[in-house]
UniProtKB/TrEMBL annotation:
Residues 8-99 form the Sulphur oxidation protein SoxZ domain. This is Thiosulfate oxidation carrier complex protein SoxZ. InterPro entries: Ig-like_fold (IPR013783), Ig_E-set (IPR014756), SoxZ (IPR030995), SoxZ_dom (IPR014880). It comes from the Bacteria. Transmembrane segments: none annotated. It holds the Pfam family SoxZ. The gene is soxZ. NCBIfam families: SoxZ_true. The lineage of its organism: Bacteria, Pseudomonadati, Pseudomonadota, Betaproteobacteria, Rhodocyclales. Gene3D superfamilies: Immunoglobulins. It comes from Azoarcus taiwanensis. SUPFAM superfamilies: E set domains (SSF81296).
Amino acid sequence: MADPILIRAAVSNGITEIRMRLTHPMETGQRTDAAGRTIPAHFITRMTVEHNDRVLVSAHMAPSIAADPLFTFRFRGGASGDSIRVSWLDNRGETRSDDALVR
């Protein structure tokens, strides 16, 4: 199982900011190891962010995104104690989903 998604969510002046780090190698399939063998592709293909079970972001991703990507975005309408869920699916079928509360 993959490492937890680090999620920070805070509301200020009616704007909720969500910061998240998705721990993932994000291998493109174009690099080689020290022995010259191709490192197989392994990257997140889809990420979803939900606020109180309502989808805020549904993103299709590509292998060109850096390892352990960090995303930040803001939206109106969150409140302290609301739930945030971040989920991803990668090209190998592995998944991860984690939750946090808005501060």
